[in-house]
Amino acid sequence: MFAKIVADRAGISSADMDCIDFVNVEGRMTAGRLAELTGLTTGAITGVVDRLEKAGLVRRERDESDRRKVFIVPIAERMAEMGRPYDLVRRAMQKQCEAYTDEELKFLVRYGTESYQSMLKATQQLTDASEAAPLKEKPDRPARSRRVP
Questions:
Q1: What is the reported pTM?
Q2: Cα 95 from Cα 109, distance rounded (Å)
Q3: How far apart are CA 94 and CA 74, in angstroms?
Q4: Virtual CA dihedral for 76, 80, 81, 86, nearest 10 degrees?
Q5: CA distance 58 to 48
Q6: Residue 98 φ then ψ, to 5°
């Protein structure tokens, strides 16, 4: 709900907010990479990037060595602006973190980073398995008879 309110304030949808989160975490990336991370088609990503660009959150940047390749680049000032509401969360988390030792915090950061990487790997494995053996189609259901009162 918090992210939805932030998205509404920025004039983007919750789905667009999910995409901007990936761009914000990973930084400069191709539309293809964003499609991989989100599961959206490259066509859908084009629409997302158009909306994010219109909102001033990202810009498109051509690769200097391959002009066909386009990167999605977060705009730091707008990312900071969108991040301001998260100061409320940051302060609450900071207060919570004060109860942990530096070693415990290092462990939590390592755990979070490794969990993110593990989730990406598991998602890719599931994608690969789905492409290799798609789910069976649902069997046709017999038409329901309508009862007339």
A1: 0.62
A2: 16
A3: 25
A4: 150
A5: 10
A6: -60, -20
- Going residue by residue through the chain (149 aa), what tens digit of pLDDT does each one get? 888 898 888 889 988 998 999 998 899 999 999 999 998 998 999 999 999 999 999 999 998 888 888 899 999 999 888 889 989 999 999 999 999 999 999 999 999 999 999 999 998 899 888 888 766 665 555 555 444 44
SS (H, E, C) the chain: CHHHHHHHHHCCCHHHHHHHHHHHHHCCEEHHHHHHHHCCCHHHHHHHHHHHHHCCCEEEEECCCCCCCEEEEECHHHHHHHHHHHHHHHHHHHHHHCCCCHHHHHHHHHHHHHHHHHHHHHHHHHHHHHHHCCCCCCCCCCCCCCCCC
The answer for residues whose C-beta is within 8 angstroms of residue 131's C-beta and 6 or more apart is none
Residue 11, number of CB atoms within 10 A of its CB: 12
Q: What residue type is assigned to position 108 of the chain?
A: L
**Pair 38, 45: CB distance under 8 Å:** yes
